[in-house]
Write a structure and sequence with these properties.
21% strand; alpha+beta; 6 strands; single chain; elongated; three-stranded antiparallel sheet
């Protein structure tokens, strides 16, 4: 590993541990040439994932799109950032654990809805209203009644 300060190749690992997300390794390194320390992260290499959109176009998977949707649905909701990040990580892990090279955007949407439901019910309804493209109040009420019946079953 090249030192980010002096650009020499003489660095060594002085500490290594799993990162907080559990999906990468945090390594503390020291440069033998200049003596400075820095941190690097190693992530597991994943297979490239292609998303098949509703119009049948294909595009590369983009975590930022899931983050954006989840964050928008949780706007002004009492959801801590750690829970939000954990939810997004769980969504991504679920998607990649399918071990497919292509996935339909509708499948991703269902995974997101399933995970958001446990995060915050208002966020779930917000996401569902955009994702399911509610055309009228009756469709919205149907989804809301499903949510209410599933939450009463858990009690």
């Amino acid at each position: 590993m090249r030192c980010q300060f002096c650009n020499k190749d003489d660095t060594r690992v002085i500490d290594s541990r799993p990162a907080e997300d559990g999906m990468s390794i945090r390594r503390r390194r020291q440069c033998d040439a200049c003596g400075r320390r820095f941190t690097t992260y190693e992530k597991f290499e994943t297979i490239p994932l292609i998303v098949i959109k509703k119009d049948k176009n294909r595009e590369a998977y983009d975590r930022a799109k899931i983050e954006s949707g989840v964050i928008k649905s949780c706007h002004k909701r009492p959801v801590p950032l750690e829970k939000l990040t954990r939810c997004i990580d769980e969504i991504e892990n679920t998607i990649f654990n399918l071990e497919v090279k292509e996935i339909e955007s509708t499948a991703i949407g269902e995974i997101v809805m399933d995970k958001i439901k446990d995060l915050d019910q208002v966020a779930y309804v917000r996401f569902a209203s955009v994702y399911r493209e509610f055309k009228d109040v009756n469709t919205f009420m149907d989804e809301l009644s499903k949510l209410l019946s599933s939450s009463s079953e858990k009690k």
